[in-house]
Amino acid sequence: MKFIIRALMLGALLSFNSVAQEVLLDRVAVIVDQGVVLESEIDALVQEVKRNAEANNQQLPSDRALRTQAIERLITKNLQLQMAERMGIRISDPQLEQTISNIAANQNASMEQLRAQLAAEGIAYEDYREDIREEIIMGEVRRANVRRRVYITPQEIDTLIDLMEQQGAEQAEYRLGHILIGFPAEPTDEDIQAARERADKVIALLESGSDFAKIAIASSSGNEALEGGDMGWMNINAMPTLFAEAIQSKDKDALVGPIRSGAGFHILKVLDTRGIEKITVEEVNSRHILVKPSIILSDEKAEAMLVRFKKELQNEEADFAELAKKHSEDPGSALRGGELGWSDPNNYVPAFKDALAKLQPGEFSDPVRSVHGWHLIQLIDRRVDDATDKRKEEKAYQLIFNRKFAEETENWLREMRDAAYVEVVDS
């Protein structure tokens, strides 16, 4: 985290050459509570957006508008990292390397190939590494603070199950563009009217043929503004209810809005659609023993402990359930003998999922390192999802949770931003 001490060292430091010419190395651009945003961070993000836009043949707004959006994103990032510091959230180097290794594997690349790709794009591996660390930390902060704000009623689940049964297993997906013309958390009538007028102007520009991504980057208050407002592909049940109701049956390139919510006025564009797909999911039933390294228990000793447990289990000298109850640090499964129950393997972190994919029923994994610690895993069985009532309920719950989590994340970020002390430092 970039705190004031570091900022003062970087922002105020001057390098002098042989004729005492001053060269500014960096400066504090924004003060954010107890932290800062440096000028170099803004420049780096702006250049990254420009590179991505050029690669995608995408138009961009003025540098001033682009810089404003970059500053807002960095303020939000800085506030989350400060909160992580207060919460004591840390990502160790072994956890980080495991995550990066999983990223490479998901791209069917080795670590050497990943490093080569980064070098070809002009990205230093250490910078990439720290970016991934910060993304993991911010994800943990969001989960810790937003999860408790999500409440789902049985009626919501029943309603969605009915809708899913009507639609069957074949459902359309939409790729949405999103522009949010926001207003404050407690807006006045004047704030709402001004936002509505701006939204109407944006609609008029889009209807006259203006580029959606360019306007989104320049004008949107949404979390995906720097991506041109692109929300990616979403099943209609996974998107905010407000959006789902508005875009149902809309064709590609359709414009929808302005739609008012508690955050402001939303403008949507159906960037693309894709047709009917049948989704089948293989589920796994597994159990594990989780050991978390600590100051007392090193990474090496934690791994060695699980190696010993595996040998005892294979020799039938120990019982998995008893070992889990005694040693596992996963409170959700330890009392059940480590059992996790039937689940889509995609719900697990990549390292855990990959280990399960290599196992046959009854087999034990080698110790596996994930962001949570060291796991010893046993695959109990596999099955193909038969869309039972229980599975439908779980699926409906997860879809609703994902939607509400996304909505509450936006609200939480906005509230945190509104409560923060932010000062833009003049050049």
List the keywords:
15 helices; alpha+beta; 427 residues; disordered N terminus; globular
Task: Describe the secondary-structure layout.
Layout: H1 4-11, E1 14-16, E2 22-24, E3 28-32, E4 35-38, H2 39-55, H3 63-87, H4 93-106, H5 111-120, H6 125-146, H7 154-167, E5 170-182, H8 189-207, H9 212-219, E6 230-235, H10 241-247, E7 255-260, E8 264-278, E9 282-291, H11 299-314, H12 320-327, H13 331-334, E10 339-343, H14 350-357, E11 368-370, E12 373-384, H15 389-419, E13 422-424
Helix pairs in contact: 2-3, 3-6, 7-15
**Spatial order of the strands forming the largest sheet:** 6-5-8-7
What composes the largest sheet? 4 strands, antiparallel
**Radius of gyration over C-alpha positions, nearest whole angstrom:** 25 Å
Number of strands: 13
Q: Which word captures the global form?
A: globular
The helix/strand order is: HEEEEHHHHHHEHHEHEEEHHHEHEEHE
Mean pLDDT: 84
Strand fraction equals 15-25%
The secondary-structure class comes to alpha+beta
Straight-line N-to-C gap: 23 Å
Task: State the share of residues found in helices, binned by percent.
Answer: 40-55%
Number of helices in the DSSP assignment: 15
Low-confidence segments, given as residue ranges, are: 1-21
